[in-house]
Amino acid sequence: MTSDRIIIAGAGHAGGSAAAMLRQLGWKTGITLVGEEPLPPYQRPPLSKAWLKGEADADSLALRPLGFYNDADIELKLGMSVTKIDPAAHQVTFSDDDSMHYAQLILATGSRARRIPLPGIDQANVLELRTAADADKLKAVLGPGKRLAVVGGGYIGLEAAASARALGAEVTIVEIAPRVLARVACEILSNFFQDFHRSQGVTIELGAGVQALEGTGTVTGVRLADGRVIPCDAALIGVGGVPNEELARDAGIACDGGIVVDLSARTSDPDIFAIGDCTKRPLPLYNRSMRLESVPNALEQAKQAASAICGRPPPSPEVPWFWSDQYDLRLQIVGLPFDAIEIVVRGDLAAGKFALFHLTADGTVQAVEAVNASTEFMGGRRIIQRRKQLTAARIADPTVTMQELAS
Amino acid sequence: MPKITFIEHNGTPHTVEIAVGKSVMQAAVENNVPGIDADCGGECACATCHVYVDAAWLSKTGLPAAGSQEASMLSFAAVTQPDSRLSCQIKVSDELDGLVVRMPEGQH
To answer: At what angle do helices A187-199 and A155-166 cross, to 10 degrees?
Structure first.
């Protein structure tokens, strides 16, 4: 039976937001939101921060109050996933073998933690951090005197380390690269965060490969490539994410390290959209396509898909941004440092209040990394959007305000 | 519960109820009022929950303090006016029952 239903596969930040935006834009007919987890859509960023520290409750984590889905006539299918798409028949199959027709399908399948094939990886207390259930497991093993080994010095690892310290645990971060945040931030920022974490009592092992996880059923240590063992009560593995693109690929939809979409979030099938972590999307500002794993990107693509489905003009291309909170540091990054050849510091690194401006050869600002410097972040966003060119001397000059720089 | 009226840029009004202690931004998000993006979830970090406070209510909501994080964020928000606020920074109280805010043309 045909219908004019929209099915959204994946009820994370992207999927949940797309459902709400479709209603905001006036979509009248059926919407079914399918989520693998038992919870209605919730915010993931607090999982490594306020939630882990016990400062947030389930209500404050929820993207919308539970009553919202009823009121907005959005059908929630939780504890369920889409296992197969038949694009020709416009039909999906669910994990309970039931099937449903769609007029348009939105894939919001997200990403999963990258798994590394290490000896001992399947033991108890070897954890990852993607879901609320993961965060609860991690929380249960943290506390005064507990030892946490974090494998991977990325954002999840660093945020979890900061929260674990707040809970009184001893923390060692093991990173295979010569610096933390090596994939996602510049060296100045990496050094700043390394120093800060060390000042908070975190041990950081750099250039350290992991050979195995020790233990006889429950992890007791992380054995490094040089033979040393970091003893621990739990190990958190945070070594990046893998896009959940298999469902799309099996249906013949174009994938290339992420489900390929256009600026309307449309895939190679005109009636199938994809949004959030699972996509590889164009970035007109940088003349490239890439995968962006962030809440602002999930929201932006949800808006793109909802606009296209409702026949509205697409939102104007955004400047990608990202944030991370660690201790009392708020890092906000706007833009991406492609083709940048110079980094200019504005503010005071030692005082923990500064911004790093990434400039190309012609002085175009490509990205701004701001620590406890929201004005620089906001001004940077405007400067990047307008493709403004600035000189290093002017950026670094504290007597020139951000308002002046951005105008 | 206090009532708050959001008026979209195209003039469409939405009157919603919200518990005391929550923010005006939460009132919009929980009731799916269009025009408030709230990308950062209420951290005063993104300026995408920008509203104009109705003149009759300005004395009760007040304006952001000079030099505050909110004032600094607003100085770069799209289409600001003298009555601009970030709705995540307005806490709902009984005193604000009946508050009217208007949306800017866009949040970016």
So the answer is: 20
Backbone angles phi, psi at A386, to 5 degrees: -90, 5
B16 touches chain A (CB under 8 A): no
The letter for the amino acid at B86 is L
User: What per-residue string of b and e applies to A204-218 under the rule 16 or more CB within 10 Å gives b?
Assistant: bbbebebbebbbeee
Complex ipTM value: 0.86
* Tokens coding B96: 């604000």
pLDDT tens figures, B35-83: 888 888 887 878 889 999 999 999 999 999 888 889 988 888 878 899 9
Residue-wise pLDDT for A347-397, tens only, equals: 999 999 999 999 999 999 999 999 999 899 999 999 999 999 999 999 999
Report yes or no on A320 lying in a domain: no
Q: Which two tokens stand for residue A262?
A: 């256009």
What are the tokens at A43? 């915010």
Residue A36 included in any domain: yes
Indicate if A133 and A183 belong to the same structural domain: yes
B32:A330 CB<8 A: no
Nearest to A28 by CA among A311, A316, A303, A314: A311
Q: Is residue A317 a part of any domain in this protein? A: no
- Mode of pairing for the β-strands spanning A365-371 and A353-359: antiparallel
Name the residue facing B69 among A25, A299, A374 (closest C-beta): A374
CA distance B86 to chain A (A): 14
Whether the CB of A299 is below 8 Å from some CB of chain B: the reply is: yes
Contacts of A45 in chain B (CB under 8 A): 41
Query: Å from A358 to nearest chain B CA?
Result: 20
Same domain, A131 and A228: yes
Q: What is the CA radius of gyration of chain A?
A: 22
Q: Which residues 323-362 in chain A show a CB within 8 A of chain B?
A: 323, 330, 332
* A375 CA: distance to closest CA in chain B (Å): 6
Cα distance from A407 to chain B (closest Cα, Å)? 10
Is A23 in contact with B32 (Cβ distance < 8 A)?
Answer: yes
